[in-house]
Hints:
The protein is α/β, with parallel strands linked by helices. It contains eleven helices and eight strands. The longest helix is centred in the last third of the chain and has 17 residues, at about 240-255.
Amino acid sequence: MSASAPASAPSPSDILARKGGTPLVCLTAYTTPIASLVDPHCDIVLVGDSVGMVLHGMPSTLGVTMQMMEMHGQAVARGLNRALMVIDMPFGSYEESPEQAFRNAARLMAKTGAGAVKLEGGVAMAETIRFLTRRSIPVMAHVGLTPQAINTLGGYKVQGRGEDRARVLEDARAVEQAGAFCVVLEKVPAGLADEITAAVSIPTIGIGASVGCDGQILVVDDMLGLFTAFKPKFAKRYATLGDDADHAIAAYADDVRTRAFPTPAHVFADVVEPAK
Ligand code: KIV
């Protein structure tokens, strides 16, 4: 099945042109109902590979597959009318060669209607980003903490502290030079995020970075309080829907056990009543 991007969605060039302007609002989504809720408020909706941890209970994003991204991408596309849809390339779908990356990025875009892909990595992925952008695939880059690399980074640590600062700055410059239209900065010190934002000509999208970034992104289930397995420091909770759901389900269970539900309003009479 193929899908198409909303006709009125901002293009990656529109997003690029927002550098230094009103901050870009970005959230993740993985399903149609949540996509419909976030769409009116967002510039970019990311079908993140965080779907593996948030919806599928995986311990990391490493087990996410192309098939999962395609299915969730198609679901999100059905809920969008105005935001730019960006889709994550899962671990193992792009690192081998620029050609592998092109094949899988083109497949994700064709099958879901996403207007751009996101992939993780800086200097090491610059050649791949250049290859994709020169072949009509817009790329959102992602540097700093790159969760697909937890096994080499040694966990979900802040990146770019002390002597590591130059590496993260170099990564951001490399993806800018390679043609990315924006770059996610994840879990980097605020001062470094500000320095990168001043140094590159593309919008920086912060997550655990700085209020000075050109935009912000959060995992939607974190900010709605739906994902409660753990709460990263950078994830501000704007609602407690997980708690609300727990209370609602407990009330339902109680009603069932005490025969308070269903009431006559929820059941059907033997005789069809005449329509009024
Ligand atoms: O997968 C994801 O949700 C992400 C965002 C946190 C940037 O990469």
